[in-house]
Amino acid sequence: MTSLTYKIAGRPCRIVVGSSLGKTLSILLRETVGNGRLFVLCDANVFALYHKGIEKQLSRFSPMTIVVPSGESTKSASQANGLQSWLIDSGISRNDFVLAIGGGVTTDIAGYVASTVLRGVRWGAISTTLLGMVDAALGGKTGINHSAGKNLIGTFWQPSFVVCDTDYLHTLPAREYRAAYGELLKYAALTGGKTMNQIIRLVTTESVSANDLKEVIVACVQYKMAIVKKDERETGSLRMRLNLGHTFAHAIENTLGYGKLLHGEAVTLGLFAAAELSRSIHPTSLRALNEWQSVVKQVMTTIPKRRLDPVRLLNAMQSDKKRIEMSVRFVLLDRPGKPIFVRGIDMVLVRQALTAMMVAWEK
Ligand code: GLY
Fold first, then answer.
1. Fewer CB within 10 Å of terminal CB in the chain, N or C?
2. Share of the chain above pLDDT 90, in %
3. Model pTM?
């Protein structure tokens, strides 16, 4: 087991990675829940598979539990409102604790609900997907989607702890597991070097040892949390680099309709487009990006085909960028390990990058 503690916004956040973490969870809950009550928001698929074990593990805290539907469409204002009402009707107080159990959808909405009820109740997460363990559950970005864009409603609200118990991955459907490759390949591009090689091996190897998997999760946690510690609210370019491929990905998710592709799948497509755009802006990166991009392409072939509309994608990207005042900057790559921020990109080049991605995906 690896346990890492970060102090963010003046409060400690503990991240534990390993397997058979039941005892560790009990200790964390004893420390954090104290004499408060425990409210559990659990993903429906996870609940169906694990409810007996979870109920046994949490019984000493006499939790109140609600089951949250699986899938991106759950990250809606109406679901958030239902969960907030449940907490309020159950008499939640500031001293209580919200525990999210599930993947990125569950931790995003549970964190959002915890941050808004009573102006903020403490929360923690058991991340049950690989994508959640390496990205979504970390760093305190919480939120729901809006018809105008992905994650447009949300807060920064750090969890007290995140438990990444790899035992949950044994029952994770293959498609969900592979969706994490999008975020993993993002880290590979951002870190370069040893971590990039480890991630590429993990993504391209059929059977990965438990230890290799754990090492990659820990490396991603360390990379991301070091950034979050310095730039929690993405006020500088530091945290912004974690959005590599995401401007494309969010537009893909938004124009297709939430849930038509998994977030990590859209990120993989976004990474390919970002690599193409990097090449057209900065041709020297051509060779250095080759190996990494060919792995991205390999992962793309496993993503179910959907029809994308380049005009709608461009419109969605432009309005997303304007809204979050990023119209001037795109996260691109000089080479693996060296993200760059490029201002005022010609939309003709963006369209070409999108077309190249769509052609590669079709093959
Ligand atoms: N997923 C990007 C971030 O947390 O900043």
1. C
2. 88
3. 0.96
